[in-house]
Amino acid sequence: VLRTLSTSDDIHDRENEKGRLEEAYEKCDRDLDELIVQHYTELTTAIRTYQSITERITNSRNKIKQVKENLLSCKMLLHCKRDELRKLWIEGIEHKHVLNLLDEIENIKQVPQKLEQCMASKHYLNATDMLVSAVDSLEGPLLQVEGLSDLRLELHSKKMNMHLVLIDELHRHLYIKSTNRVGQRTKEKGRISSLVKDASSVPLMDVTNLSTPRKFLETSQFSTPGSSSMRETSLLEIKEDVELDPEENSTVFMGILIKGLAKLKKIPETVKAIQDRLEQELKQIVKRSTTQVADNGYQRGENLSQENQPR
User: Fold this and answer.
1) Domain ranges of the chain
2) C-alpha distances in Å from residue 285, one per residue of 64, 133, 171, 176, 217
3) What distance separates the 2 farthest-apart alpha carbons in the chain?
4) What is the mean pLDDT of the segment spanning 261-287?
5) 16 to each of 5, 19, 30, 251, how far by Cα in Å?
6) Burial of 247 (0-12, 13-18, 19+ CB in 10 A)
7) Does the predicted model carry a pTM greater than 0.85?
8) φ and ψ at residue 196, rounded to 5 degrees
9) Burial classification of residue 124, based on how many CB atoms lie within 10 Å of its CB (0-12 exposed, 13-18 middle, 19 or more buried)
10) Which parts of the sequence belong to the Exocyst complex component Sec8 N-terminal domain (predicted)?
11) Higher-scoring residue by pLDDT: 1, 12
């Protein structure tokens, strides 16, 4: 239209064209007004709906912006909290470790008293376990605790001398306890002979069935290839019952003593002590046996003399 108006040289044509345009505009306005009147309700609803949607989108944008700001703030706070939580976690581990050390210190302080009780009741395996564990703790995790220096020296000294007590007990059961059984059997035979008029009718004492340390190891064990493992397994299975008399079973008691010496790592010293004292202990056995035989013979003679003299 603008090209037509600009290229036209006749004013009349331009006026005609202008009139047609104005008429078309007026017609368009009328049609638009009619359409607006016809669709007023729908148009109003659409405008209101569009306005509501626009407001919601604007609010949502503002909320999302606020959420983003809050998320960034939470992220920063979480970083701070994470460092604080890590610090608290480390402190918790440290406090737990300190409490464990304090409990261990309290238990170790009671070791000397418990050790004396175990030694008095001759529960040597429990005493050895307790002593070795306490010394390892004092020379390990508790090495830097200056307040335990005296206790450390005391328990270390007891550990150094513990094997001497165990060796003495082992020798006592090897040489004295085992031969005492023979002596007691001899005394029982002597009592029987005193009740019988003819002492010659009493049979001689049979020592073949007596339990001696030599018979603790059967000959079959030395002839089988797996004998060492069998003896080792039996030694490992030995356990100490605090409710029973530890010396009731001599075999088990000597096994407990050897196990305690092994935990003290004093087996070489034990073997050397047994070798050094072997001759002396055997001489003592002969001496005690001779004394017992002489005493029994003297008592038997006294009984015979009393039978011959009724007064």
Assistant:
1) 122-181+246-294
2) 101, 38, 12, 8, 21
3) 190
4) 85
5) 10, 5, 21, 141
6) middle
7) no
8) -95, 135
9) buried
10) 20-117
11) 12
